[in-house]
Structure formats: structure tokens, C-alpha cells
């Protein structure tokens, strides 16, 4: 059966932080589609409904059914990262979203690809709070799928290497290209597809020193303003691939960095 893969989620699955020179946002899900096609030696149909800034419930309410309507063979889901940044976060609320996605995938005969997000807490203000919430969420979601060997697991939260600064963008919230490649390698491995060895740890990208004042002005400040005004970085945005796009195998040796 031909692979038809769709991703739903927030900025993590949209690919924020892995911007190409032409301004196009790529990210791990795009890389997975390409790596999957390369590994199979055949075209993979790929769609991506993920939109930056989304809380977990809007992801499920707005993206899940349109994604399933495409009749995919595989669906990946990650969410809750934006919820965990809010002062009051219910882990049970986030877990219920994962349970709903799993239930609907079961009903539609779709293979569920479960991802946990990478852990940004070592470099963030209130990092200890985010670490604790992430640990709690990981335990709770893992308990939901504990007896489900059919669920494909690509768990990034425990990856200590991925938590280090060389894998993250200046905003400290989104992975850079190096981080997205490492996540893509983990997903492909979970799918039984051999990723390029280099994807696990590409050469470090040039770093730009960002002082505390500039960080708060350019990154944390805008985020706080959106919270106060009830807006989101994803407001008005459409999915980048709301219908199937065909991803053909690349020639051997093609550069996907």
C-alpha cells in the first residue's frame, strides 16, 4: 500500500526554526516525508495541517478531521507545548487530546505516530516549571499507549543531547535545522526506515550571541504581548499542505541538510 502521511500539530510540526534561504519553512515532518520516500524508493503522499501557536484543543478540533478526511495511512500528532507555557495547565486536558486522536485513528484504520516534543527547559526562564510539566505529560501520555505496540513512538523529550543549545533557534523555543533533522531521524527510525547517519548530529550552525536584554525584547516580549491580547502567532495562517503533495525519491547523495 502506498504511504499517505499527514501531520497535525503546532509550530513543532509546522517546522518553525528550520527556515530555508527562500523563506520556506521546512521542519522534521517535511524531512520525514522525503526520507521515507528515499527509503522506500517510491513516492510518498504528504500533507501537513500544523499551524504555529496552536493550543492542543484547537489542534484537535480544527485539524484532526480534515486530516482524516484525506484518508491517510499514517498520522503524526504532537501538541501541548504551548499549553505548558501558560500559568495554569491541566495535564489531563492535554492527555485527553492525545486519547481522542488515538481513538479516531483506530476508528479510521490509520497508524498513529506519537511524538513528544524536544525539551527546551534548560535554556528558558521558569525552566524548572516547564521541565516538571513536560515530565508529567510524558509519563501520562506514555501510560495511555503502554499496551499499544502498534503505535509508532518517536519520543524526543528524554533526549538530553537535543536539549542542548546547538539544536535550538535564537528564541530558545523552537529547534533550528539541526534539531529538526535529529527529530526526523528518530521518526524514520521508529518507522523502520534508515535515515542518513548525518541527520542525528549535523555540524553545529553558526551561533549569534543574544544578550538577555535583546532576548527579552525580541522574543519573550512579543510572546507576552500575544498572551495579554489573546492573539496567536498562527492567527490567520493556513496549513502549508492542506491537500496531498507528492514527495518523490531523491537521487542518491542528494543534500537534504
From TrEMBL:
It comes from the Bacteria. Residues 229-257 are annotated as: Disordered. The keyword Aminoacyl-tRNA synthetase does not apply. This is SGNH/GDSL hydrolase family protein. The keyword Hydrolase applies. Gene3D superfamilies: SGNH hydrolase. InterPro entries: GDSL_Rv0518-like, SGNH_hydro, SGNH_hydro_sf. Keywords: Hydrolase. SUPFAM superfamilies: SGNH hydrolase. One of its GO terms (molecular function) is hydrolase activity. Residues 7-181 form the SGNH hydrolase-type esterase domain.
Amino acid at each position: 500500500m502506498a504511504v499517505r502521511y499527514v501531520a497535525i500539530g503546532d509550530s513543532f510540526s509546522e517546522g518553525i526554526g528550520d527556515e530555508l534561504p527562500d523563506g520556506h519553512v521546512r521542519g522534521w515532518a517535511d524531512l520525514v516525508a522525503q526520507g521515507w520516500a528515499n527509503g522506500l524508493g517510491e513516492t510518498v503522499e504528504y500533507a501537513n495541517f500544523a499551524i504555529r501557536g496552536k493550543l492542543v484543543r484547537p489542534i484537535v478540533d480544527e485539524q484532526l478531521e480534515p486530516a482524516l478526511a484525506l484518508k491517510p495511512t499514517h498520522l503524526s500528532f504532537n501538541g501541548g507545548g504551548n499549553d505548558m507555557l501558560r500559568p495554569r495547565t491541566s495535564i489531563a486536558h492535554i492527555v485527553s487530546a492525545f486519547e481522542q486522536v488515538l481513538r479516531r485513528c483506530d476508528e479510521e484504520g490509520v497508524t498513529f505516530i506519537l511524538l513528544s516534543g524536544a525539551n527546551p527547559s534548560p535554556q528558558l526562564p521558569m525552566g524548572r516549571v516547564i521541565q516538571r510539566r513536560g515530565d508529567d505529560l510524558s509519563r501520562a501520555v506514555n501510560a495511555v499507549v503502554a499496551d499499544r505496540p502498534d503505535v509508532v513512538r518517536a519520543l524526543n523529550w528524554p533526549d538530553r543531547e537535543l536539549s542542548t543549545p546547538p539544536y535550538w533557534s535564537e528564541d530558545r523555543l523552537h529547534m533550528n535545522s539541526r534539531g529538526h533533522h535529529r527529530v526526523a531521524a528518530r521518526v524514520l527510525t521508529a518507522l523502520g526506515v534508515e535515515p542518513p547517519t548525518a541527520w542525528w548530529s549535523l555540524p553545529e550552525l553558526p551561533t549569534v550571541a543574544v544578550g538577555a536584554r535583546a532576548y527579552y525584547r525580541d522574543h519573550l516580549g512579543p510572546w507576552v504581548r500575544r498572551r495579554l491580547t489573546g492573539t496567536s502567532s498562527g492567527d490567520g495562517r493556513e496549513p502549508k499542505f492542506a491537500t496531498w503533495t507528492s514527495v518523490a525519491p531523491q537521487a542518491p547523495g542528494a543534500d537534504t541538510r
